[in-house]
Amino acid sequence: MMDRIVTIVPEAGLHARPASKFVETANQFEAELQIAADGEEPVDARSMLGVTSVGAEHGDQVKLIADGEDAEAALDALEKVLTTPEDEYDE
Amino acid sequence: MDQETVDRIISPDLVSLEEPPGEKRAVIEHLLDLIVDAGRVSDREQALEDLLKREEETSTGVGKGIGIPHAKTAGATEPTVAFTRSTDGVDFGAPDGKPATLLFMILVPEGGSDEHLEILSSLSRALMNDQVREDLHTAQSPKEVTSVLTKAIT
After folding, report:
1. How far is residue A72's CA from residue A67's CA, in Å, rounded to a whole number?
2. Which of A18, A45, A73, B139 could form a disulfide with A26, with the two C-beta atoms 3.0–4.6 Å apart?
3. pLDDT (tens digit, 0 to 9) for every residue of chain B, 154 residues total?
4. Residue A61: which CATH number?
């Protein structure tokens, strides 16, 4: 089990395209992946409902938690989504 | 969210338990009309345009049979949540591929705050609970829906 604190870069926060990209990325890994807002209970990072409930805005910190063989790669990929400005996303 | 805020954004006249249209654009207009009829929209065309713009960016199906079209728009006069439910479900492009049977709309007026995102996250947190979704499916009246939602969100 490993975790990482990440500050959200996209202006939209963890909503709309960044949220959808985040969920899409989380679903590419085998590890169990969770995301938590500061001081809140972690939720499933693969669920759009869960990710929407986090309500993280631009500049907020979130905790990513991963457990499984590809945990580190998953954390790297999710961190990249959260720290890339929206206009730099690949289509 | 506190009770006062929830009472301000949800009321039985914003809930319809009649079968809505089965197609996304039509159901968005259907939910919008509930809000228009409740006197909370000053410019229907503007509100619709902002809702559809948000859908174009990414669809608002969040999975578990839930769709939450939402917008911050100059067409709305106060923060509002509307609700309807569909027997067969409506395709809202959810990542899990499930059609949306529980359909919400969030509209908030233009302004400094991101209240629509606060409402969206509070509502999503409430809807993660299986019992809350079940209660919304079985509620017999608009009043019962608002009481389930109020209890779940506060």
Report:
1. 9
2. A45
3. 888 999 999 999 999 999 999 999 999 999 999 999 999 999 999 999 999 999 999 999 999 999 999 999 999 999 999 999 999 999 999 988 999 999 999 999 998 677 888 999 999 999 999 999 999 999 999 999 999 999 999 9
4. 3.30.1340.10
Is B54 in Cβ contact with A49 (below 8 Å)? Answer: no
**Which residues 66-95 in chain B show a CB within 8 A of chain A?**
66, 68, 94-95
Cβ atoms of B27 and B19 within 8 Å: the answer is: no
Residue type, B73: T
Which pLDDT tens digit goes with each residue over B14-42?
999 999 999 999 999 999 999 999 999 99
Chain B residues lying within 8 Å of A45, measured CB to CB: none
Handedness of CA B75, B20, B153, B71 (dihedral sign): negative
Tokens standing for B12?
């039985």
CATH superfamily of domain region B3-153: Mannitol-specific EII; Chain A (3.40.930.10)
Query: Which residue of B lies nearest to A42 if distances are taken between CA atoms?
Result: B125
Could you give the number of structural domains in chain A?
1
What's the complex ipTM? 0.91
Structural domain that includes position A72:
2-88
